[in-house]
Design goal:
By secondary structure, the chain is mainly alpha-helical. It is built from 23 helices and nine strands. The protein folds into three domains: 86 residues; 214 residues, no CATH class; 175 residues, no CATH class. The protein is 55% helix and 4% strand. Strands 1-7-8 form a three-stranded mixed sheet.
Length: 604
């Protein structure tokens, strides 16, 4: 995860009722020129650079010293930031009819599209929308499932979903959490009406069309592109689905898991059935032990938290990237303090948009965390690469690129890499890789259709294709169509199951996660080819490849200054995304799944 206070900050709300008092305010009566636009952009950039730094520092302090005071300070500067970006977005819209240079037009669009939920230009409606958003956020955050005097938080339920193999207990927890979402329904319906009104005032057909307009192509073309990419991955997903359903049928009985129907959603180890890695023990291949355990190897070689971070940094310097600044080590959080509360969720930061790079993690000495550190440093090196760009472009090429870069680097944490850095004595035979590939596919391949359908549902809600009377029915139709997952019990329009997923009431666009899962394999394949890899793609590590590092850095330095298609082409040579890299990566697993699925009825 990358933590940054750039133009992509949270769910900002447009309201033209804010006082336009800054020196760069454009008179409504004056005919504007390109020079006015450049003056406005230059002044806005200065304002944003200052606000970015202050908002980032306030957020960092709050995340590392959680008190009522630091929460208040962070909220204050965030409100100021939001107000300013709202004002600037409205000002940018006044240049819509002006013919600008390509660069100036792109900067203006970045300002306008920084907004996630545009409110109507009406004080009363804007206030109403703000209240709805706060109430939805509170409903989710405070949500609990209580039976008698015993209440479970979402964290408690998530842990039980991961570990329990009791059908009825899993069903109870699954149903319990979805009680939290029911009261959200009328609020969400009203929110859709209000934000659509705001989007239309900004010149977009609806809020979904506005979200899709951030991807350097016509909104409807982008939706078609996502379906094309999904079509490439679907055969692999279908094979994985068939195998997992068969194994769940063996575990729970085919009366509970019929072999010709979608899988009941509560049996996949995850509250939303979005990743399935927690049920690896149910579906694991025989003799799947790879012959080593990274957690044990780290302990054997006396790796502490700092050694793990420095080891991950060495990955990047081996590719030709400059070392991290000393301040990275003196200012980052690597271990959980004993004397205070902190946010332990791993995140990467650049506080001054220059070289004040940091990560915030409560590192555990495990193999999984070692990969996570590589992932977070991927964000940091991306942040530093684009820090010479104007503030408008100090972000990834599109919102899927940042997460993809971190994951791309983590894909190079292979047995061969572990041997090269001295953690592993011998690389196991390739026949041992099926278990590793299965575990990865349960998380990464299983997620892809879910990553697609969340916004498919929202876009159809925003454009009216899904009416409020069909919210829940349409949700489950998409779950069945894309994932082959079904509700384990009857659901009605009294339910609001989309609201049980944070990103829906939290209004966080979700397509970025779908894109990241596609792009990371495409990036990995391209880097491996540049590095001269001759072996299996899933065994490739680009450690020590200066050529791969140079090409990667060329893309990273661009930030979002050019359309993402151009950034993609600098690394892969093509301007169109291609999901066949995933099929290449999991080719040995596909062969295994084909053998296992012989005689089984696949599909739903």
């Amino acid at each position: 995860m990358t933590a940054k206070f750039k133009l992509s900050i949270g769910a900002l709300i447009v309201s033209s009722t804010l006082a336009l008092t800054a020196c760069n305010t454009v008179s409504q009566n004056k005919k504007v020129t390109e020079q006015d636009a450049e003056t406005f952009l230059a002044s806005s950039a200065e304002t944003l650079v200052d606000l970015n730094a202050r908002a980032s520092r306030a957020a960092w302090i709050y995340a590392n010293f959680i008190t009522e005071d630091t929460a208040s300070l962070s909220a204050d500067v965030n409100r100021e930031y939001t107000d300013v970006v709202v004002r600037l977005a409205n000002e940018a819209a006044k240049f819509d009819s002006l013919s600008l240079s390509e660069d100036n037009r792109r900067k203006m669009d970045k300002l306008k599209l920084a907004l996630t939920l545009p409110a109507p230009q009406n004080a009363e409606k804007s206030k109403e929308l703000a209240g709805i958003l706060a109430e939805l956020d509170g409903m989710y955050g405070k949500g609990k499932y209580c039976k008698g005097n015993e209440c479970m938080s979402l964290g408690d339920m998530t842990s039980k979903m991961a570990s329990s193999r009791d059908y009825e207990e899993l069903l109870d927890i699954w149903q319990g959490w979805r009680q939290v979402a029911k009261p959200m329904r009328p609020l969400y319906e009203k929110q859709v009406v209000l934000t659509n009104e705001g989007a239309k005032e900004l010149g977009y057909a609806d809020t979904g069309a506005m979200w899709r307009s951030k991807y350097d192509m016509p909104a409807d073309d982008f939706a078609d592109e996502l379906d094309r990419i999904w079509g490439q991955v679907k055969p692999l997903y279908d094979s994985l689905h068939c195998h997992v359903r068969a194994k769940l049928g063996e575990k729970y009985g085919e009366d509970k898991v019929p072999q010709d129907q979608p899988i009941p959603a509560h049996l996949l180890g995850n509250m939303w059935a979005q990743t399935w890695g927690n049920i690896y023990d149910v579906v694991a291949p025989e003799n799947a032990d790879p012959g080593y355990d990274v957690t044990q190897l780290l302990a054997k070689h006396n790796y502490d938290e700092l050694t793990m971070v420095k080891g991950a940094e060495k990955f990047f310097t081996s590719m030709g990237f400059a070392p991290l600044p000393e301040t990275f080590y003196s200012r980052s959080l690597f271990t959980k303090p004993q004397d205070r509360d902190v946010q332990c969720h791993a995140s990467a930061w650049n506080l001054d948009s220059k070289d004040d790079l940091r990560i915030k993690m409560c590192i555990q000495r495990t193999g999984e965390e070692f990969s996570v550190i590589h992932h977070e440093l991927g964000h940091n090196f991306y942040q530093r690469a684009y820090n010479t760009q104007p503030v408008y472009y100090q972000e990834s090429a599109n919102d899927g690129f940042h997460e993809a870069i971190g994951d791309t680097i983590a894909l190079s944490v292979t047995p061969g890499y572990l041997k090269e850095i001295g953690l592993l004595d011998e690389v196991p035979d390739e026949s041992k890789d099926i278990g590793l590939l299965m575990k990865m596919a349960l998380d990464k391949v299983a997620f892809i259709p879910f990553g697609l359908l969340v916004d498919q549902w929202r876009w159809k809600v925003f454009n009216g294709e899904i009416s409020p009377a069909e919210y829940n029915q349409a949700w489950w139709e998409l779950r069945e169509k894309y994932q082959g997952i079904q509700a384990p019990i009857t659901r009605t329009e009294n339910d609001f199951d989309p609201g049980a997923k944070y990103h829906v009431p939290g209004n966080v666009p979700y397509t970025r996660y779908f894109l990241a899962h596609i792009l990371q394999f495409e990036f990995h394949k391209a880097l491996c080819e540049i590095a001269g890899n001759k072996g299996s793609i899933h065994r490739c590590s680009v450690y020590n490849s200066k050529e791969a590092g140079e090409r990667l850095n060329t893309m990273l330095e661009m930030g979002s200054s050019r359309p993402w298609q151009e950034a993609l082409a600098t690394l892969t040579g093509k301007e169109q995304m291609d999901a066949t890299a995933i099929l290449d990566y999991f080719k040995p697993l596909q062969k295994y799944l084909d053998e296992q699925n012989k005689g089984r009825q696949c599909g739903w």
